[in-house]
Design goal:
Elements: H1 14-19, H2 36-48, H3 115-120, E1 206-207, E2 236-243, E3 246-253, H4 256-261, E4 267-274, E5 281-289, H5 296-313, H6 315-324, H7 327-352, E6 361-369, E7 376-382, E8 386-391, E9 394-397, E10 452-458, E11 464-468, H8 470-478, H9 480-490, H10 498-505, E12 508-509, E13 516-523
Parallel strand pairs: 1-12
Antiparallel strand pairs: 2-3, 3-13, 4-5, 5-6, 6-7, 7-10, 8-9, 8-11, 11-13
Amino acid sequence: MSQQGGRPARRDDDWWRQLYDDSTEDTGPSSAPDSLDDRFASARNTVAGRPGGRPGSGAEPGAEGGDGDDDGGATGTRRPQEPSVPGQRAPHAPPGGPPAGRPAPAAPAPPTEPPRAAQAAPRVPAPPSEPPEAPPVTPPAPAGPPPAPGLTPPAPPAEPPAATTPPGPPAAGGEPPAPPGEPPQAAPRTPAQPPPDSAAPVSVDYVGSGPPTYDPEPTALPTAEPDELGDLVPDTVLDGARYGACTLRAVSLRGDSARYRGEPRRDALLTARFGSGEQALLLVAMATGARATPGAHLAAAEACRWIGRAVGRSHQRLVEDLRAARRGDLKSGLHRLTDRSLGRLRASAAEQGADPEEYTATLRCLLLPADPDCRTRVFFGVGDGGLFRLRDGEWQDIEPRPSAAATTGAPVVGFGSPPAETPEGDRLTLDFGIPTPPSPYEPAPQPPREPFRFRASVARPGDALVMCTEGLAGPLRGEAALCAYLARRWSGRAAPGLAAFLADAQVRVKGYADDRTAAAVWEA
């Protein structure tokens, strides 16, 4: 060991040349910290004249804030630096140590890579986004040992970029971040599903020459009053049931025009069961309020409630007439119930101070017995609409056509009681001279001007009976593509589910944007 201020025994600055000289082979891994960062820190401390620097480097004792470099000021020698491993001295470290009273700088953490790989790899500067004092990053060698456990090597890019910025260290246990300025790689696309079987009918949005004018989904909600929230009606009503040999599906939709303008649905739908067991009677009632009149949806809902109450109170007698096939009794009795219900609706308009010609509705009803041995299906009502039967894949328009001479549908061959007093079999609708009591309303509400419609038929297995308002009857009569589409969808013996029936009922046709209400019955 040389004296203070003297020259070292070996050649001048030989250790400095060995610092960056790659000709000297490494002696192998050791437990002492011997990395590129350790050597750089040792050289920086020596050149800057920091404590623990090389003797004779120009640093004078006491230059650092008055703290002397002498050990007690007696021997004139420096305190050796404490090695990280007992009994060993840090490689290439100057013989001096830190000054008295100042802690030695902490040694950097040992690298995760072998010293040979770290020594052979070139020093890569830190990205611009990192702070300047951050330690330099040592990327893994191009062809070296496998990556550390928990790290996933980045996938090679499809096309090499023109200028690539070295990425930062990947997070443990995850994918490395994408280099700055390079868009992330898109996830692999899932192969498209194969097209469905061409033989099976596929649900469509519209049929005809072109798409309808309005959007297929609801746009605006109707205006609501805080104190009249009970008067609101939903956009869509869906219901269904199965009794005896028939399966029922019923739906009421707001039209495209009303959805766009934020108007309420003018159609009303009521499905009810009266009684239990084989004595039960199913009623499907639908009504449509007058167009472009305030409170049209309220009038339609009130008409359904009135006829539902009347049928429910007389359901036992109606079931007996259905089983006994008393067609005349059914027609006359249902005619009275319809006139009475619509008369109450006109009386309600008078109580509200509304015009009875505006506060009115068309009414269409269907009676279905729950007895599986009784296949009698009875339709009755007032106003426009449609009654269709799908048999053997062909549509049959069986809507009763009223006239001035006849207000009922033609009798079905082979069904019903033989005519008694009249050719139509009406016995209870004759004028017996009974005086009519005075009406409590002035002026007295008149009976409906629309003729009464009635039809009774016997269902066959595989038939589908469809009753609907004018919103669906119009396109069924005017667009052959819709008839063909629904015939394919509804010709099966099994009734469609509620969701499938809803999708079929709302297939749109250009030029028809009114509300749609339909009830279909499939015979097992």
